[in-house]
Design goal:
Length: about 180
């Protein structure tokens, strides 16, 4: 993927026209209109950049538009963000969950972890199954989420195994979480 559009936007260079410029990771700014054209032509990095820009400036509804475009273009992160920030009963959430399910079935285990986190309140059993699948496939986020949810549920044995796996995979947070269990 072209990471040229991946951005780190926390503030705009111009406080009066934040939507007119995008700050890129390289430190350069670019007109939002150019990035919008790239997004419209299927560049998911451009869509994600616009979504992040809008979200960081409090225009969540506009961010949802760009996350949806990214998700429709098969961008896993776009689907997760769309599912996370859209209304659970809305079409955007259903689109995101459907895409994440498909990604998970294709053995894209990051999607399994994302989906497990998105559905945790609706279906705890399926959520834990997806997180375990992701963790067993060496997805650190799946291990960390599985560990956290197991700890909250009082299943210290599962939490310990999940945090140990994350630690073994080189995640400092997993190592620290493991220490808190002992």
């Amino acid at each position: 993927m072209n990471r040229w559009f991946w951005l780190l936007v926390f503030f705009s260079l111009s406080s009066t026209c934040f939507a007119d410029t995008i700050l890129l990771k390289s430190g350069k700014t670019i007109e939002a209109k150019i990035v919008e054209k790239e997004c419209d032509s299927g560049n998911t990095d451009a869509c994600m950049s616009l979504a992040t820009n809008r979200f960081s400036h409090g225009t969540i509804q506009e961010a949802l538009v760009y996350w949806k475009k990214a998700c429709e273009a098969e961008d896993l992160d776009g689907c997760y963000q769309l599912g996370h920030f859209s209304q659970p009963e809305g079409g955007e959430s259903k689109l995101a969950i459907g895409k994440l399910k498909a990604f998970c079935q294709e053995k894209k285990y990051e999607a399994c972890a994302d989906l497990g986190n998105l559905i945790a309140t609706e279906d705890q059993v399926e959520s834990m199954r997806l997180l375990k699948l992701a963790c067993d496939s060496d997805n650190i986020n799946g291990c960390l989420s599985l560990g956290y949810r197991a700890k909250v549920d009082g299943d210290i044995s599962t939490a310990e195994k999940a945090y140990q796996r994350a630690c073994d995979l080189g995640d400092f947070g997993g190592c620290n979480s493991l220490k808190t269990l002992k």
